[in-house]
Design goal:
The chain has 179 residues and is an alpha/beta fold. It has a single domain, classed as Rossmann fold (3-Layer(aba) Sandwich). 30% of the residues lie in helices and 21% in strands. The strands form two sheets. It has a five-stranded parallel sheet, sandwiched between helices. Strands 5-7 form a two-stranded antiparallel sheet. β1, α2 and β2 form a beta-alpha-beta unit. α4 packs across α5. The protein is globular, with a radius of gyration of 16 Å. The two termini are 23 Å apart. This is PABS domain-containing protein. Keywords: Methyltransferase, Transferase. It comes from Heterorhabditis bacteriophora (Entomopathogenic nematode worm).
């Protein structure tokens, strides 16, 4: 869903032959970034940031993660990395992304498991906005418990304060984590 959303949001152009920049916060097994590196006729520069070095080891061992000059995995706190990029030059020279995929989650059961609460703070949302190109998008993986579906609406509300178009999409009625 996150990959498809990157295209139908208009942030990425499927028929574009020029370089498109992608930031993914949260590596997991590396499935999203690995898939995107195999897409035919696409020219992507993919940066993945994950706070946990063991995730990179798992992604390499079990999911065939291969880094390259256009596919990087950085071990860092996602928000620290975003802040560093947002403050690395002026508006004309700073590194900007066509799409930012937020897939940073808690490792325990709670009402809102994904994204991390820090990604809902005003200052952090403003910082994320600074690194997204005009016409770009922020795609967020939202995971809630069965009885906390309003949490997804809360995430959508916070981001709608800073981005002109926000959509909340549920993949299926069974797309929930149950208690």
């Amino acid at each position: 869903m996150m990959i498809a959303s990157s295209f139908f949001s208009g942030a990425l152009d499927f028929h574009n032959k020029i370089l498109q920049r992608i930031l993914i916060v949260g590596l997991g097994g590396g499935v999203i970034n690995n898939y995107m590196t195999t897409m035919k006729n696409q020219k992507f520069d993919i940066t993945v940031v994950d706070i946990d070095p063991i995730m990179k080891t798992i992604a390499r061992k079990w999911y065939d993660l291969e880094e390259s000059s256009s596919h990087h995995v950085i071990i860092d706190d996602g928000l620290h990395h975003i802040a560093a990029e947002a403050h690395s030059g002026n508006r004309n020279t700073m590194k900007k992304y066509d799409v930012v995929l937020l897939d940073a989650c808690y490792n325990d059961k709670r009402d809102l498991m994904c994204p991390l609460e820090e990604f809902l703070e005003d200052q952090n949302i403003m910082t994320i906005k600074r690194i997204v190109k005009h016409g770009g998008a922020v795609i967020i993986n939202i995971i809630t418990s069965k009885n906390a579906t309003k949490e997804a609406e809360r995430v959508n509300f916070y981001y709608s304060l800073y981005f002109p178009s926000c959509y909340l999409m549920q993949y299926s009625e069974h797309d929930r984590v149950y208690n």
